[in-house]
Specification:
Elements (H helix, E strand, L loop, with lengths): L1 H25 L2 H6 L6 H5 L2 E3 L5 E3 L7 E7 L4 H17 L4 E7 L3 H11 L5 E3 L2 H9 L9 E5 L5 E6 L4 H8 L4
Length: about 180
Amino acid sequence: MIDRKLQWFAAALALAAAGVAAQRFLFPADASAAAPLELRSAQFWDASLPDLAERRQPLSQWLGKVVVVNFWAPWCPPCREEIPGFIALQERLGGQGLQFVGVALDEADRVQAFADGAGINYPILLGGGEAVQLGQVAGNRLGGLPYTVVFDRKGNAIAGLTGAVSPARLEALLQPLL
């Protein structure tokens, strides 16, 4: 029985790794940073998701700022790894027109507990299937987490990044836009 569970776990892990590798090969982050993403902009900016207080928040309220939308979950280790860098960048560059927005894929109580513990200083929106669809609209073709999209002040997608993003790499993308 243990061998069967171990085989299943190994197969699931291999499948997940293959998915991440395929996304990085087919849609490398460096290439997406150089060319605009295929993004259905109107569909993205017309969307709204509930916040932690269960109030729907239109994404369009952040148009005019440099926006970083991060799709994440509290159970996702790479997501947890990158969030402290996002907090620091929001604190340091928010006054220059930068706005992070987190889109969490989990239950509200789990997201709230993580956000409180981590000291997240930017809006967190919640979503299940609706957020997954929004991620696909934003260019996350394979549905990996974390997934981060950088938008310029006009709402154009500049980069779509799969996996944990270092603060230095993200700041390099942001500085020309601020």
